[in-house]
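Allow me, if you will, to draw on your knowledge of protein folds for a short while. I have a record of one protein: its chain in single-letter code and its fold written as discrete structure tokens. I remain grateful for any guidance, and I place the record below:
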Amino acid sequence: MSQAPKRAVVLLSGGLDSTTCAYLARSEGFEVLALSFDYGQRLKRELVSARKVAEAVEASEHVIMTFDLRRFGGSALTADIPVPLGRTMHEIGEGIPVTYVPGRNAIFLSFGLSFAEARGAEALFIGVNALDSSGYPDCRPEFIDAFQDVARLGTRVGTQGQAVRIVTPLVALTKAEIVKLGIAAGVDHSLTWSCYIGGDEPCGECDACLLRAKGFADAAVVDPLVTRR
């Protein structure tokens, strides 16, 4: 009798971090179920990358949930608020930026937890990164620990002692370490997208682009998105 495959839901934006998580999940033998979000964000380009990455890791299912956080606003990604450009690493690391979307990871994890329980997935991967993030409170380990309690207390499988495990393999890594880990896992970085603004090409000036550039530079690796310009 064949054993049922172990499954993992991966929250997949198409960015550097979530893509690395998708490849890691696959390398660990999980059947990947990808979950992406069209939430009214300023940039839809990332969903193009999410589709390509889901295909690359041979996701058995790729769901794109649609809802509109523009109804709430409160972020440069969901409202008419300028995205900061050309900031220094010190400025990026100070405080919580206007690109923080109120409650976004709590919403994403709630959808992911529902999807995982419905599909019998044992793990839920999210590419939060506390070291090189731009100060987002919902990327911090204490937030993930609290949500693991939610998974344990607020789901049927959790109350039965089989809570969906929230996996954060990148949480303590720098962007350079994430780049290197991705290469080791076989990530095709040309599929990924990090920019908050760019159309056909990354802008190179927003926080996401600058953090990405620093990661590749510190890893002494050429970013394929830069070389194709």
Remarks:
- The mean pLDDT is 93.
- The radius of gyration is 17 Å.
- The first strand starts at residue 7 and ends at 11.
